[in-house]
Structures are given as structure tokens and as C-alpha cells.
Amino acid sequence: MRLSVGAFLALSHLPGLSADATPGFRGVTNSCLSEPIQPTPEKRAPKVMIISMFAPEAEVWHKNLPSSGLGDLLAVNISIPGLSPIFPQAHCTASGEICQLTAGESEINAAASLTALALSPRFDLVRTYFLVAGIAGVNPKLATLGGVALARFAVQVALQYEIDAREMPAGLGTGYIPFGGYDPCDYPAILYGTEVLELNGALRDRAYALASRATLADDVGAGAHRAMYADAPGGVFERATGPPSVVRCDTATSDVYYSGALLSETFENTTRIWTNQTVITYCMTAQEDNAVLGVLLRARLWGLGDYERAIVMRAGSNFDRPPPSVTAYAHLRLSDQDAFHIAVENLYRAGVEIVRGIVDEWNCTYKVGVRPTNYVGDVFGSLGGEPDFGPGGLFGGRGACVGEGSCGSAGGASAAAAAESMRRRRRRGGVGGGWK
């Protein structure tokens, strides 16, 4: 979640939770509709779990979903130990097909809440699609205010060394250096495993097609702010000047709410190098995506969820760098970009099309899952296959093995072999290896 200065004012105008709304009903619209799920007090198996980060992102679903015919998310409220103290419940429609959880802002909150959900005996999430739906900062090179982006890569860009820019060596251009490296263009020699998480590209493309059906909201004030980017040299910010649209590009995760051209360009470079791409694909900045996906990946290893069913959707509430002739400080703290309301609204408008598509096409497509055509997982190769980025997986393409006893029959690589591989890599990281 990225919250601009105007957003703080906007919060007071958003509607509160509707406690007395009546459950909605989804009528039969085509032959692909599955049988209704009959919820039980013990365990629910939703088809879609919407992940919000803070109250406005959740409330737009609570307010609007009943009129969609898909149900009322406040029909069933489920307390789960370990959720955020201010968001202690998951919410579900009466049918149990659609649920929503507010994780809390920042990586720690998101990881803690998703872990609590994954381990909760109240849910069976093995076939659930997770829709991460939050507002974000937006790169004016690739998208615009109010625009919606579906990601293939989530990159934890701040997981690096940082030297104060006032003390960095001449010629580096940035104070960020990958762990174990000596130059900003080095690939990290020391990996934690959450640096890059690649999602199911085929599912991302399906979600993009569904979200593209939406008519997105816009605002005159946001349009005026976009127009300020038209004067950028060479038309580099041309996409920033257009109206909201749905695009495919990637997210940068950082708990630091950064702003300004130099930092944003630094992280453009980080995402390009770490994902092994030749072009810039970073267009949204957020605080939670790698945390959410890291939990879903581990849940998949233990048979508690399906990482291949994760979708990351972000809507731009503010640009991550200023227009020409505006300072980074003024852009961050003094400018009202008038896009908070439309970003929140467009999360719902685009997201409900994704949710409807999954529910309506459950039997025909989504029940069995969408088979990925790309590598899916982390830089370690934990889910199997060889990463198409980084130095190669730790598990020989077989994936990590978990659980009790020997992993030989499961085909997974041993933890000891993976640990030794990691030790060798760290020794190659240079003098001192960058150890903490």
C-alpha cells in the first residue's frame, strides 16, 4: 500500500463497514457455474480470497460487492488467531465462494496475517485463488494515476546494502548495492530467497483479460496532475498523461516509502537485473507483495495452498517520482495528486471482473487450475523447475522437500545439499562475504 498526502484527507470521506447489509445472490448466468459451496462452521473452501492491506481497500469490496450479485462479504465473519489486532476477522459471502482478509500494511503485518490464515483450521485453501488488491505508487514511464497493473514479478528491491547517498563512492550513481556485490549492477551474491517471486504468467494474462472488461473511474484533478508530465524530455512519461487503463507490469516491494527520480530509477535497474530482463517492467511500488507471496509459496510446500493461483493487482494512487520542475519533497509531501479515490475504486472495478470470471468459469477452467507456461516460484527453485533469473536453483530442479522422514521418494533435494550450495555461493560473494 502507498498512501499519498491527499489520501489522508480522503480517508475521512470513505464509508464505514456495513454491518447490516443483506447477503447478495449470484444468479445462474452460464453453463460453467459450479454447484454452490455449502459452508460449515468447521472449514470453508473459498474459490477466491481477496487480500486487502488497509481499511479503504477492504471497504470498497464490502460496500460494492452486494450489488454485483456475487454476495455480501460481511455475511460471515470469521475470527482467526494471529491476524492484525485492528483487522482480526476474515469475511466471506454466505455461499463461501468469496472471502476477503485485511492483512495490515507493511511486510511484517502482511506476512504475519497471511501465515495465520494459511495455518487456520477454519479454511481449506488448497484450490483458492488469492487476489492481492492494493493501491500503489506508479511509474510514469509505464502507467498512470488510477491505472491497474497485473504483475508477473514481485521484487523486494530494498533487500540490499545501503550507503547514505552523501557518502557513496564516486561513479556508483546510487547508494544501493546488492548483498555480496560491489556495484549496483551486480547480481546479489547472498540470497535470502524472497528477492524475486515469479507468478503464473498464464493466470496473470487471464486476469488481465478479465480486468480489461472494466470501465475504470477517473477524476479531473488526477487528469490535471497527469498533464504535468507531458513536458518530460523525449516523451519519456507519455503513458503517465493518459487515462486509467489495465496494464501488465511488475511490482517493487519496499517498506520504505521512497519517492524521487533517482531512487525510482535505481529500483528500475534492480528489477531489470534481478529478473533477468532486458527492458524495464517495474511500474508499481508497494509494501506487501513479496511478504504475501512468500507465505503462499511456503504454504504450497506444505500442501496448504497453491502458489500458482496467486494474482497481484495494484492500482496507482500516486506517481513514484515528480513531474518536471517539481522537487521530490514537494511531490511527496505537498502535492495532492487527486488519485486516491479512483485508485481504490478501480481496485474494485477491475478486481470484481477477475472474481466474477473465476467464480463463473469455475467448472470449465479454474477448478483444475491454470497451467503455467513460465517458471513459477522463488530464486531458490523451491517449488521445482529452474528459475529463469538468478544464479540457478538450489534443488536441482526437483524443488524443496518438507515434512518428516526421508525426501528421497518425494524427489525433492535435501535441505543439507541446499544449505551447502548456499554456503558455496556466499563464499564466492567476496571478502567477508557480506555477512551480518
TrEMBL record:
Keyword Signal belongs to the record: yes
Keyword Signal found: yes
Domain of life: Eukaryota
GO biological processes: transmembrane transport
Signal sequence, renumbered to the chain: 1-19
Cross-referenced Pfam families: NUP
Gene Ontology CC: one annotated term: endoplasmic reticulum
Keywords assigned by UniProt, alphabetized: Signal
Protein name as annotated: Purine nucleoside permease
Species the sequence originates in: Monosporascus ibericus
Taxonomic path: Eukaryota, Fungi, Dikarya, Ascomycota, Pezizomycotina
